[in-house]
Amino acid sequence: MNNYLKEIFNGLKSLVIGLKVTMTTMLTKSTTIEWPREAAPIPERFRGHIMLRKNEETGLSKCIACGSCVRACPSNCIQVKGAKPEGAKKKAPILFQLDFTKCSLCGLCVESCPVDAITFSRNYALAGPSSEPFATMNLLAGLASPFREESNEL
Amino acid sequence: MGKGSVVPPLIHFAQLEKVLNHARANSLWPLTFGLACCAIEMMAAAGPKFDLDRFGAGAFRASPRQADVMIVAGTVSHKMAETVKRLYLQMPAPKWVIAMGNCAISGGPFNLDVNYSVVEGVEQIVPVDVYVPGCPPRPEALLEALLQLEAQICGTRRFPEPPPAMPKVA
Amino acid sequence: MSFERFALDIYALSFGLLLIQLVIGAIMAVRAHSLVHCFLGLVMTLVSVAGLYYFLGSPLLAVMQIMIYVGAVCVAIAFGLSLTRKSGEEGTRKYGLAVLVPPFITCAMLGSVLLGLSEREWVGYPKKIDESPIGELLLGEYLLPFEVISILLTIAVIGAISVAIIKRD
Amino acid sequence: MFDSQENSTYQLEPVEDNQFVLNLGPQHPGTHGVLRVILHMDGEYILTADPVLGYGHRMQEKIAENMPYTQILPYMARMDYLAALSFNQAWVCVVEKMCGYEVPRRAEYIRVLTTELNRISSHYLWFGAFLLDLGAFTPFLHAFADREMILDLLEEVTGSRLTYCYFRFGGVSSDVDDSFLQGVQDFVEHMRSHLKTYHELVTGNVIFQMRTKDVGVILPFDTWGYGLSGPVLRGSGEKYDVRISEPYSIYPELDFEIPVERDGDCLARYMVRMREVEESLNIIQQTLDKMPDGPVRSKVPKIIKPPAGEACMAVETPRGELMIHVVSDGTKVPYRVRYRVPSFGNLSVFSRLAKGQLLADALAVLGSLDLVIPEVDR
Amino acid sequence: MNEISILRSLLTIVGVSVAIGLNAVFVVWLERKVAGHMQYRLGPTEVGPKGLLQTVADGLKLVSKQIIFPSAADKPIFALAPIICLVPVFVAILPVPFSDTLQGHELDIGLLLVIALGLLNTLGILMAGWGSDNKYALLGASRAIAQICAYKIPLLLCILPVIMLSGSFSLRGIVNAQDPVWYAVYQPVAFFIYIIAITMETNRSPFDFAEAESELVAGFHTEYSGMAFSLFFLAEYSYMFLASAIASILFLGGWHGPFLPGVVWMLLKIYFFLCLMMWFRWTFPRVRVDQMLNFGWKILLPFSLLNFLITAGVMAIL
Amino acid sequence: MTFIEETLEGLDISVEYPDSALTGIDAQAEVSVEQIRPLSRTLFYAGLFLESVSAIDLIADEIIEGVYLFNHYEQHVRLKITMKTDRTTPKFPTIGDIYPGAVWHEREAGEFFGIDFEGSKDKRNLLLPVETTFHPLRKDFKRPEQAGKIQ
Question: What is the predicted ipTM?
Answer without folding.
Answer: 0.86
